[in-house]
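Students often ask what a holo structure prediction actually looks like on paper. The answer is less mysterious than it sounds. You provide the chain, you provide the ligand, and the output is a string of discrete structure tokens encoding the 3D arrangement of the protein together with S-adenosylmethionine.
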Amino acid sequence: MVREVYTCFRKLSQIVNVIRASLVSGFIGGNLATLALLRHPSAAMGYIQYGLFGWRFISGQGLPQSHFHELFATPKYVSIDLLPTIGYLTYWDANYAKDVFYLALLGRVLSPKIVFEIGTLQGYTALLFALNTPRDTIIYTLDLPPDDLCSPSLPTTIIDDAHITAHAHSTEYLYRDHPAGTKVRQLYGDSAQFDFTPYHEKVDLFFIDGAHSYEYVRSDSLNALVCTRRGG
Ligand SMILES: C[S@@+](CC[C@H](N)C(=O)[O-])C[C@H]1O[C@@H](n2cnc3c(N)ncnc32)[C@H](O)[C@@H]1O
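The corresponding structure tokens follow.
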């Protein structure tokens, strides 16, 4: 009897603790933190954006999620090559590290012969693919030309505009410093206007990482589908 009362009491106090923690740190703490950011609009935007992103992620909204090994036949042990001192692995946000990990894993597990990437920026992911694919793989990577002669033909987001400005005039790609970078072929053009015909049904792994507006993601996805070979 005493034991049952004790167990019941423990369960009750656990429930009370969860409610208290949710109220204090989640609801009150979260909102107080937002108030403190009122004088710093860009930090406040970041707070809201990451909060929403995290919530959508853990609440399972958006596209259905699957584990990598459920989609691709994956050996129990796989070695991947990473760039631990530059780029995304040095960001405080762990989401980027996860992206890098899975892109490298895709390269290793699928062993693609032809990779096509839309969105080079500094060439980080192009080099990542170069490091994690067979010796004879070719990585095509497409970006807007660095000379401002070609601007986006479809609507873009604020983040796209920031990326495009960051990319403008810079051709100091990371892959140029690495021997595996010889596998990379740089292409220039607006992905919505680019002539993808030579790549139709040739690509084993197509990575879309250009502009993020609905119009661009739709257009890039349709091009990716016609470029990807059967089984790619
Ligand atoms: C998210 S960054 C790519 C990051 C890169 N994949 C990496 O992780 O190393 C997006 C890139 O897409 C490029 N981009 C934006 N709009 C584009 C377009 N319409 N056509 C081609 N590239 C575009 C930007 O210039 C920018 O370099």
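The mean pLDDT is 90.
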